[in-house]
Write a structure and sequence with these properties.
162 residues; 29% helix; Spherulation-specific family 4; Spherulin4
């Protein structure tokens, strides 16, 4: 048995002009790639402002862009949250996760995310409990189901984490 191929893509590009027109949207090449590969599963890391930004919902360009990719069956979207290598107060992390989870309540479009991408993660045993708490919180903040939580230390992690 072979595992299905999947792509994780950090979409750290502002979706300019996406509200105006799909053809003008900065994410148009992304849309075309996703649609041209319907049997390939994509996980897109959404990062409006090194986190969800200041409001309860993203701006109109992000709303349009996220709704467009969420309409595709081969796409999952997850929100970027930084943890400053385990030094960021857990309350700040939780606040940003809660904002992302709240996107599911936006009634005009489907901008609900499928989970969280935890960036700037520490790779040592001393922060294992911190990241366990981060993961647990994400799983409780999002609607029940298949919440995806990814941890990105950017370097190898200790074997004890597995």
């Amino acid at each position: 048995m072979t595992a299905a191929l999947q792509v994780i893509f950090p979409v750290y590009i502002y979706p300019s002009d996406c509200e105006q027109s799909r053809d003008l949207c900065a994410w148009k090449p992304l849309y075309e790639t996703l649609e041209a590969n319907p049997s390939l599963q994509f996980t897109l890391v959404i990062n409006p402002n090194s986190g969800p930004g200041d409001g309860a919902f993203p701006d109109s360009n992000y709303i349009s862009a996220v709704a467009t990719v969420n309409a595709l069956s081969n796409v999952k979207t997850i929100g970027y949250v930084r943890t400053t290598w385990g030094r960021r107060p857990i309350s700040e992390y939780q606040a940003e996760v809660s904002v992302y989870a709240g996107w599911a309540t936006y009634s005009a479009s489907n901008i609900g995310l499928h989970g969280i991408f935890i960036s700037e993660a520490n790779n040592t045993d001393s922060t294992l409990q911190y990241y366990t708490n981060c993961s647990t919180y994400a799983h409780t903040a999002f609607p029940a189901g298949n919440t995806l939580v990814m941890l990105s230390p950017g370097t190898p992690i200790d074997q004890s984490w597995f």
